[in-house]
Amino acid sequence: MTRAKKGPQRNTAPEAMLAPVLKDVLRKANNLDPKLVEEIAIGNVCQPGAGSTTSRMGQFLAGIPASTPLYGINRLCSSGLQAVMNVAQEIRTNQIDIGIGGGVESMSMFSMTGQVDPNCISELVYEHSEASKCLMPMGLTSENVCSQFGITRQMQDKMAVESHKKAAHCQKMGWSKEEITPYETTVLDKDGNSKKIMVEMDDGVRPQTTLEGLAKLKPAFKKGGSTTAGNSSQVTDGAAVVLLTRRSHAKKLGLPIRGRIVSYACAGVPPEVMGIGPAVAIPKALEKAGLSVGDVGVWEVNEAFASQATYSVETLKIPYDKLNQRGGAIALGHPLGMTGARMICTMFSEMERTGHKTGVVSMCIGTGMGAAGVFEHE
Question: How far apart are CA 373 and CA 45, in angstroms?
């Protein structure tokens, strides 16, 4: 994951980011024959049509044949997680045996700006109190969470400092190397000259981040507010995918088994406080799994904003020493359609490092939702 507009993937198209991880996931599955992949679902938020055309092109660039179908999916910030769960459901219902779910986002080439054209919105929306709130900028929903639930600037900045601290320690220890697929791409300088560069690490981490430094930043969305650029997720480019199959099929083909999906839940909340979604979705997913917060060893809760992540963590009493131990989106970035799949990869790597058996991935979703998945490591 690299910084939008500034990082080494700033001139890399979505299909060119997606192809290397599609190749690599097959390599890690004992060089699985790409012809055996029966479905691909790729999350994307900023591109028109959920980027289904460019993702299909990325599939071909990765050497996966035309006989494998693909579709794009947009469930905003949970798109990558939803893509994985959609493929899992196809396997569960015997539609396919092997599939890939994931996500890709170039926030350098595409942005949230212009996602909804006011000229194309029905007048009925503006006359409906709930529907009109879906148009509220995400930053203001963060401020709403702060004011309604007592999340202070100090609480948010503390989470931001911890996010960078954890991510920097992870990089220093080399923990994230196994999650990353290095590849070569091209960047352009200010004069339009191109040069080859390796993409091999998350570049948004700022180890020098301090509470004192963050305190100097001005509110980004509301005068007198507390949500700043420093305690919000970074605008980032990246791609991630997950290979799924049923256990019997994995054994038949001799594929490595890292773990299993235990449960999944998505829940709705008021659009104006969309960030509280994880606090509602996580209990729902845990109940389906027959588990409690105390049963979970590794937590990946997306830091779209420190405000909403803090609220969810505090409300559910999630232990901070089990939360985002490799850093969260404030330090690493939040490529919208990719994040959910990336968090699954991070969670399994952390479970393998720590020996914990159960992990949870969760995030808030624009327009007022939250999603959560429970996983088990083997």
Answer: 20
